[in-house]
Amino acid sequence: MRQYDITFIEEIRDSSGTAFPKLCALMEGYNCLNSSRAGRSSSKEQYGVIYKKVSIVSMKDYNPDIQDRWERPPFQITFKRGNYTFTALVEHAKPDDAPKEMSALNALASNMSGNLVVLGDLNADCNYYTNKTDFKGSWFWALKTGTDTTTGNTNCTYDRMIFNSDMKNEYIASGVFSDGINSSISDHYLVWSEIKTGE
Amino acid sequence: MERGFLFISAILLSLLIFGCASQTSSVEPTASNVNSSNLNVSAPPATPSIKPLTNQTNYSKTNVSAQSKISNNETLKIASWNLQIFGEKKAQNATLMAFMQTPCGSMTSHS
Fold this sequence. Notes:
The complex is a heterodimer. By secondary structure, chain A is mainly beta.
């Protein structure tokens, strides 16, 4: 994670609230923040953000969601670096509800302006999300469908980074970091994108 | 005679140390010669500082769709990672935690 300026962590499942701070303590030079615990069952998850080089302008936690649109409602953070400002919307979609949750995420994101990236384990591929009816048109999907983002035998692109038309202009590159990641660490690889922000 | 032996031993020892150091630097890239090394820290750490375990390494085995020709000072690298049930159990695994903070392709033990 030291290779990245901002890392969004999904599936922090820790009732003690100690695991993420422990990880943050190892990340010298970074700041951290996390969302509230979300989930319909007793099993709750949080999002974590580990960041440097940027400052936080604002954040919004969509949990609890009165409309109950997502199992784990998205976490929205607006970052600033120099004169460049962008917003990230991270979500961990419930696999079986991926089409419904993606649709709700699309509706939410489409009403937002400025530079925006929607990212996370969206379960947005293969059997969970076959039709891909959301984030069409000017949206840019950085990781192409067929890119393997998990340690399993499939070649599914469950983890996504989707840029709106504004932020697409700053996009440089994206990829999957898989080296050394096996099921004992996580069933997902790390996905990344690089953007140009200017100084 | 004895002085001569000590002198030759000192030279051989120097050569041995220099040779090892050179070999190590070629295997483990230093922070100054890798693509992602420009890690200027502008914000103070929010948590107690702990020294990083290893140097940065390069992006191996990544599917890069375009190559950056822009200075790292002008770019941001954004990552997303589902850490699958990241809780107390994983946080207590020092080896795992070391990998998570520096996923460089090799597990580094941390006591």
